[in-house]
Structures are given as structure tokens and as C-alpha cells.
């Protein structure tokens, strides 16, 4: 297995006409009993597993390309290729294939696949028609040659015969010499014929012809022929562009002449395919598949040769990070790496993994950290492209580097913070670079790609790092644009005052929208970390300031953020919203929008519809208790009436549950006393007196009277807390909670509405009943205990002292 002559890579052609690497191994040809014939076997060099088992069929067309490639098709739309490390190994296997098929190894292709109709026509042809006779290579015969080349394109057999004829006796080189003669004589007719000939030869799709045409001696003449398209009045100047305009820049001198030649050839062939040749029609799209393969394998070879030259890459990195390097030189170095990484995309995952590991070992990420912070826009843009290649290929590699950065350094120089700052400071009015960087940040913080089996703690470690060192940098523009000057002096103000700082600049609004999109992503995917951050920074309150923005898309982003929070159905979030009275800016926006039927209106309605459908009880009670008077007039949707219905149902259910618990539940200790006394009673006492159940109103008039009196006072208070009605007939709310109130820092508990206060009052009332000792007959009587079954009983007790103060009128009203 150590024989390098037989070392190969196995490729298959995918639906996009790109070659996929199936692995590296060693090839052999042997008889396989199961397939009943000589077969090609490739076993992986890593574990010896079978990568390929293909019987050499007598009717399969095998093609030899570039001395180290063998390509064939095993079934419709299933192409295979073996890329040999050494030419000797390719020749050895090629001879074996030709031996099985009875072909001459000197041929570049054993046979063409032909359909039945083509085969029938072939059999009917006389023997003399099997060969294609080319006219003499003369100026007077160019038209005849052009007609011949054009006529064979529809027949696979005749294309192959023509290709063999063109390769014999150096026919292609003679044709290209005629081009120089025609151009010297300014023979336009002959030049137009040569255009048709060269274009047709390219469509023959034969690698052996490409090797001749794209050699250093011939390629510029091929480009020259393709300049004289008969459809054009004046010829194109492609050669002038390739020789004078396009400059080959060597950031570090390349000493390997073979590598230099390969780079020049690949660039020129790519230019021919992308620029010179017209876009192939649906009938011609497969004619240039070999040309695509030619470019592909050239790029693979270039990347491999550069990757193996460690001295070259080390020198490039040294100059890139050297402070003494001139800006123009550094720009060329960064552009080289950008092109280098673009070429690497032709590699398959295994090879690309080795490629990026090589770059990582040489220090690509520390180098990017330096160049991304530079003032040169071109350098930063190229560095961003390189960074995107790295993140797309291996986000874990980038995360690992970031977490290994020295923590004693300033947070500003951390790679992710450099990326965030570049996103924030993007000078493009359309924020094209910021959008690209935001996508890269999302990839880095996405938990879905942190589930690597090698590092079980990557998710926890990286997210802790990100929220500790990077989140404040990301949210800085958002917090800076939603704070009032007095806020910095420690004075808490309502949200409406903060809207003075709202950004009216469209570019700033776009940037805030991008940040909100990323934060919304965090709410969906980072449950614990983002929740802690939102609570500590009172982030939702700050974001809802943007509901007042004149840019509707920004208001929608703020609303979407709140919608994602509510969508988590987390009671911590719900209590935070209730305490901060954070529905007010949303409802004010709905009322300000009036009867306009637009996206903002629909999004707000959908928010309340979600709360209704999911039956989020705490939020429903809060909305109905505080805002229903303003919302009940909205009748074009049934959302708010539905919320009211849910509220009433829950209220009835609580009342019923309360009554049942009062009537039927007894104190456990009293039950034990009853049972003990029953066992000690004499049989003569079977006719004990019945115990009468007294009504609470009659037994304890004092406690019940206090309860009813408190309830009436509460109801009268509630009537004073309705929203004010504007002259236009709509209702308006004002903000009455500061950031401190949202966190429960100050403020006395306000009297809550009947729906929330009544159960506590009733519960206190029944507990007071249990504390009294009524005078009853001697027979033991069980004591009543008021047990009220509330879903969040413990939470409500904790929140009693944190109720929001009574709402004040809007400032300035």
C-alpha cells in the first residue's frame, strides 16, 4: 500500500457538474468473483475500506486526461474519475483497461457511449466512412474545414474521429499558424472561419486537444482566433487585456517554474470560459464539461503546491503582520490570501480541512485580527472575505482561537469585538459589509454548530465568554440611542422621554435593525444567557423605545424582539413584562396607528392573538386589568374580546376552585383526631349529635364584613385607573414605571384589580376563619381550612411587595 504509483483520489461528478472528492487510496485491478470480471478496486489509505469497486466493462468509454486522470461513466449522470499521484501509475492502470477492452493504449479514449439510433447508423455506414479525412491545412480550405468541424458536433462518434484526426501530425498547430498569416494579411473572411473552427474544437470536449491548445505556445493564438466573432463589427481585444491590462502580481517571488506556468494557464483558460465563450445553450451545456474539469484540477494542483511550500507561506504571513510593511504591499498580501482561499473552495472537505489547518497553524487568525482593524477599506473588505471562508468552513476553529486569546488584553482587541466594531462602523450607506458580518456573527453564536463530539463544553464556555466580553460591545449602539441624558445622571425617566434620542438617520436605523435581528436570534437560541442579560440591563424597555421611530421597519424589529420573548412562554419573562408595564408602548403604537391596515397593525394584533391562543394566563390578566377599556372598542378582530373571554373563564374557574376547597378540604390534623376519638368511643354513643354547618356570614359577621368593605373600596379605586380618552375618541396610556420600578427597586405596592386581589383577600378571610375557635357541642368538629389552588401561588406571594405603582398621566398632558 505504500506504492505511490498506485496512490489515487476518487472523484464523482455531482448534479452541479462539480467534482466531489470521495477519498484517497490505492488502486488495483483484479478479478472479482461477484462481478465476474476484472475490476478496479480502490481501498482507502486511512482504514483500508473500499472506496471504489468498478468492473471494467467492454462497452464503457474510458478517457485518459492530462497524463494523470482516467474518467468514465458507469451509468447515466454518474461520472467517475481517478486522479493519480504519478503518471506511471496512471499508465499502468490505463494499459490494463485497454487490455480488457482490446484497445490500443496509445489512444486517449477507448470508445464513445452511443445510443441505439447512432449505433444503427454506424453499422449501416460503409467502412470508409469510419475515418474523418481532414482537408489540407491551407488558407483556401478554411471554409471547408469550418463546415466539417461544425457538422460533426451532433455525432459522438464523428466528434471522436475528428479529435483523433486533429491530434495527428500536429494539425492544430498548423491551423494556429494560419491564424497568424490571416491576421498579417487582414484576411477577415479567413479569420471568421478560424473563429468557427476553434470554437467547434473546444466543443469537441477532448482533454488531449486542450493540452495542445492551452500550452504556452498556442493559447494566445487560440484567444486571438476567438476575437474574430463574425457577429461583431469590430474584433474584441482580449489579447491586449491579458498581456497589458491583467498583471501577474507576485507578493512573494515564486521560484517554482511549473507552479508559475500552471497559474498563468489557469487564469487564461478561466478567462476563455467566463469571458470569451458565449453562454452555452441548453443543448450545449455538456459540451464544455471537460473544460470545467480541466480548470478544476488545475486549481487543486495550484493550492496543493502552494500549501506544500511552507517557506513561501511563512514569508507571506511574516510580511502581512510586520508593522514595517507598506500599506500597498499589505493590500496585495491580503488580496493574495483572498484569492488563495477562493481557490481552496475547489477542494473537497478532507483536503479543505488540511488546507485551513495549515493556515491556522501559520497564524491566519491573529493576522486577520490586525488587518481587520486597519483604516484601509480595501484591506478590511478582503480580510472580511477571508474571515467568512474560515467561519463557513469551521466556526469551531474560530471559537477556539477566540477563547484562547489572552484575557489580560483589552476587550477591544478581541477578534470578535473587532468584527462587531467593523459591523457598527460600516460606512456603506446600504450596510453591505455589516450584513455580511452580522451573518458571520450569527454563525459563530449558533448553538446548532457547537454540538461537536470532541468538545462537550464548547457551547457553555463560548456563550459565557461572548456574554461577558462581547455582548456589551454589540448592544452599545442600541443602548446609546435609547437613553436620555438625565439617565446617565442616575435619574430614571419614563420611556417616552427617551424617544428624544431616537435615530432619524436611515443608516443608523438600519444598523439598529441588524443588531435587533441578532438579539432576536439570541432570544430563540440562548435561553439562560440572554435572559440574564435582558433582566440586568432592562433591555426590553430600552428596545421598546424604538416603537416610536419614524422608520416602520425599526419599530417592527423592536416588536419582533418582544414577540420572541413572549413566544418563549417563560414566566420569568412574563413577570418582567408585567412589572415593567411593557405593553404600554405597544398598545400606544396600536392606538396611534388608528384604523390603518398595515404590517405594523397586523404584527401587533398577532402578538395579542398568540397570547390568547396559548392562554398565557398571567399576561391575559395583566392586559385585561390594565388596558381593556382602551382595547374593547377594537371590533374588526375578535382578539381582544377573546382575551376578555379567557379572562372571565379563568376567573370563574378560580372562584369554583376556591369554593370547592373551602367546602371539602379539612385540616389533616383534625382528621387524625376524629379517627382516634372514633376508635375510643363506646358502642352506646352511636347516636351522636349531628353537627350543624354554620354559614360564614352568620358565624363570623365581623370578618366577612371587613372583607366586603375592602372589596368595595377596591372596586372604587379601580374605576379611577382607567385610561384617558383623547378628543378623537381613542384612548391613550402613559408610562408610569421607571427602570427602577421594573426591577422592583422602589414604589409601594399598588392596589391591584379585583381579578388579582380578590383571591388573596378571600384567602386571608378564610384563614381568619380557621384561626377562630367557635363554641360548638362537645362532639369534635373539624376546622375549616381555606386552601386556594393558584397556578403561581408562591410567585404571587413574592411579588406582593413589587406591584407597580398606580399609573400617572402622561408627562406633558
**Rounded average pLDDT:** 77
Largest sheet: 7 strands, antiparallel
The span between the termini is 88 Å
- Global outline: elongated
Secondary-structure-based class equals: alpha+beta
Radius of gyration: 41 Å
Number of helices: 37
The fraction of residues in strands falls at 5-15%
Main sheet: strand order: 4-3-2-1-7-6-5
Low-confidence stretches: 113-129, 484-502, 682-705, 717-813
Number of strands: 9
Give the helix proportion (percent range).
55-70%
Could you describe the 3D structure shown?
- With 813 residues, this protein is an alpha+beta fold.
- The protein is 57% helix and 7% strand.
- It has 37 helices and nine strands.
- The strands form two sheets. The protein has a seven-stranded antiparallel sheet with strand order 4-3-2-1-7-6-5, covered by helices on one side.
- A hairpin with a 2-residue loop joins strand 6 and strand 7 (78-84).
- The longest helix has 26 residues, at 639-664.
- The termini are far apart.
Describe the secondary-structure layout:
Layout: E1 7-13, E2 19-32, E3 37-44, E4 50-55, E5 62-65, E6 69-75, E7 78-84, H1 87-101, H2 116-124, H3 142-151, H4 156-167, H5 171-185, H6 188-203, H7 207-213, H8 219-225, H9 238-245, H10 257-276, H11 289-308, H12 310-321, H13 327-344, H14 349-362, H15 364-371, H16 377-393, H17 395-404, H18 415-424, H19 432-444, H20 458-469, H21 471-480, H22 495-498, H23 506-525, H24 527-537, H25 539-544, H26 552-567, H27 571-580, H28 584-593, H29 599-614, H30 617-631, H31 639-664, H32 668-680, H33 696-699, H34 701-719, E8 724-725, E9 731-732, H35 739-742, H36 754-771, H37 793-799
Antiparallel strand pairs: 1-2, 1-7, 2-3, 3-4, 5-6, 6-7, 8-9
